[in-house]
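Narrative summary of target 7.
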Amino acid sequence: MSEAQTGAGQPASLTYYTTAELAREAGVTRRTVMHYAELGLLAPDQVTASGRALYGPYALRLLRDVLDLRALGVPLDEARDMVALRRATHGVDGTYRRDWTRADIPLSDEQLRIIHARLRLLNAAYARQADGLARFDRWLTKRFTGGEVEPLKVED
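Modeled conformation, tokenized:
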């Protein structure tokens, strides 16, 4: 990773990822990152004089979120809108920007309504799954284990 330069030539406190570094951290190919950039899903935060794309720390979280959204069946255009909304309201380092205004958000009210509807649909599905999993866990505990079971360790 490289340290970015601020406009005044001072090193910024943020460390930026190259396309290959970002891909490696997210567990995808470099080509996937480039493809998402071409589609407008994951624009670089900076481009060097030589044309190298650099991504800030928040880009890794956004890339992982896009991968998760895709796995949940969210269409690319909605995933792109969700990323655009989060980029408009968060800094390059991922901190929430309290100074954002509606004018900072490059989405129409209709696009925001679609995002909201999709999130409600996903949350409802998660609630149903959580309820079903809890019932199944209670049934397994009662029928087979007779007590507490340690959860499996899951890696990122």
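The domain at 17-144 is CATH 1.10.1660.10 (Multidrug-efflux Transporter Regulator; Chain: A; Domain 2).
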